[in-house]
Design brief:
The protein contains 17 helices and 15 strands. The chain is of the alpha+beta class. The structure holds protoporphyrin IX containing FE.
């Protein structure tokens, strides 16, 4: 049986605005679809997405004998710094190297270290919101971005005067992760990766000589079984922590407030009507800030009743899986009393989000503070246009 072929409408503004009705049609007609534009097989159902995340037949790193490997190498020649910052990104690694590196990074990123940031998060969130309440403001640029970048900056130990550069580099680099990337965006990402690389490299030198109580210092010192992280591994990790952590958290805050508003759910004291942890999980399930991740097929295998060939590429659609009626009853409805909270938005298997504990705490502090008042949308917010990283350009609100 052949996998049904489609032209996935990832550039269509109507689809980006609300992809879920179309994803539902796809999901209910077949578990897999082949997108003729990207050449990816799209995995739409919850069970299959979970299956891919936990199976050894799929890999986040490209097999060297794949026919796209040469093309990727050519691309790495054109954008050497972007690829240099990706070389040791946990997201792209598998096997022993991934396990060793993840173990070392996790040691420097414990639950206790994250919990110690709670008072800082509370003060920062209050400070920002106190200055904004009563006026109309952009929830993303004026609140969520400075909040999230200051938390990650504090965790890593980056001086505050660099936060604007951080935001700029991060915004440019993450554009490389969408399904289609223009050459202009690729060139901007390359320059951002170069600046970011040299900045972090210098910071590591400073912190290696004079360590502080922050994550860059811990990453420079952490050991396990006589292993230490190399400088390039630390640089890639710091860049990943900023990019992976910042964009998804900011977009979750934005997507959540808009979702509540558009579903006529009052924000005021929402956390006294329902448990805050359940509110957060349900909002991340309902509109996932990261919609897809790619995997290579390592061996001939089958999925959802179809055959997949070795070295082909697939994309697991997290947002679609989270709306699968076979996994979540009345999946289209926001329900803070849902029993099943096991959505796919934080991934699964060996690549499960390493920063989920930080993201959950950041969201808990932030949303608890935002829920002190009613939040109204001043204008209809406009989506960024990207499918993979799902968010808004701007969200004007009053509260
Ligand atoms: C709401 C916010 C967040 C969401 C929805 C999210 C989601 C995800 C997902 C889906 C993956 C798995 C990717 C894959 O399967 O290939 C992942 C991996 C990862 N995330 Fe997050 N993330 C969030 C926040 C954060 C934060 C705050 C950090 C750290 C500062 C972080 C660090 C990471 C890292 C390091 C990985 C790679 C893990 C690995 O490959 O072993 N994330 N995240």
């Amino acid at each position: 049986m052949n996998i049904p072929e489609i032209n996935f409408p990832n550039l269509d503004p109507n689809f980006i605005e609300d992809p879920y009705p179309h994803l539902k049609t796809l999901r209910e007609s077949s578990p897999l679809h082949k997108d003729l534009n990207s050449d990816l097989v799209l995995v739409t159902r919850f069970e299959d997405v979970k299956g891919v995340q936990t199976s050894k037949a799929f890999s986040s790193s490209e097999p060297e004998d794949s026919n796209t490997f040469k093309r990727s190498n050519e691309s790495s020649e054109n954008y050497p710094y972007f690829w240099k910052t990706e070389e040791f990104s946990l997201l792209n690694l598998e096997g022993q190297l991934h396990g060793d590196l993840r173990g070392l990074v996790a040691k420097a990123f414990s639950t206790r270290q994250v919990q110690e940031l709670r008072p800082f998060m509370e003060t920062k969130s209050e400070e920002l919101l106190n200055n904004l309440r009563g006026n109309s403001f952009d929830l993303l640029a004026d609140y969520a971005q400075p909040y999230s970048v200051s938390v990650i900056g504090k965790l890593l130990g980056v001086p505050e005067e660099q936060y604007d550069n951080f935001l700029d580099w991060s915004n440019k680099i993450v554009k490389m992760y969408d399904l289609e990337v223009s050459s202009e965006s690729s060139e901007e990402a390359e320059q951002a990766a170069k600046d970011f690389y040299y900045y972090i490299s210098e910071l590591i030198d400073i912190k290696s000589k004079d360590p502080d109580d922050d994550m860059i210092s811990r990453l420079s010192q952490v050991t396990e079984n006589n292993q230490k992280l190399t400088k390039d591994q630390i640089i890639c990790t710091v860049i990943l922590l900023l990019n992976a952590g910042h964009e998804a958290t900011v977009n979750t805050i934005g997507n959540s407030i808009v979702a509540l508003n558009q579903n006529n759910i009052s924000t005021k004291n929402l956390n006294t009507r329902y448990e805050i942890k359940k509110i957060i999980e349900e909002l991340i399930r309902w509109d996932s800030p990261l919609q897809f991740f790619q995997r290579w097929v390592l061996e001939d295998t089958s999925l959802g009743g179809f055959d997949l060939k070795k070295n082909s590429k697939i994309a697991i659609l997290l947002g679609s899986a989270n709306r699968d009626e076979l996994a979540f009853k009345n999946a289209e409805i926001i329900n803070f009393e849902r029993d099943n909270l096991s959505h796919t938005s934080f991934g699964g298997g060996v690549h499960f989000c390493l920063g989920a504990h930080l993201a959950r705490l950041e969201l808990e502090v932030s949303l608890t503070n935002l829920f002190k008042s009613e939040i109204f949308l001043v204008d209809k917010p406009v989506r960024t246009g990207a499918f993979g990283i799902r968010g808004y350009k701007e969200i004007t609100v009053v509260c």
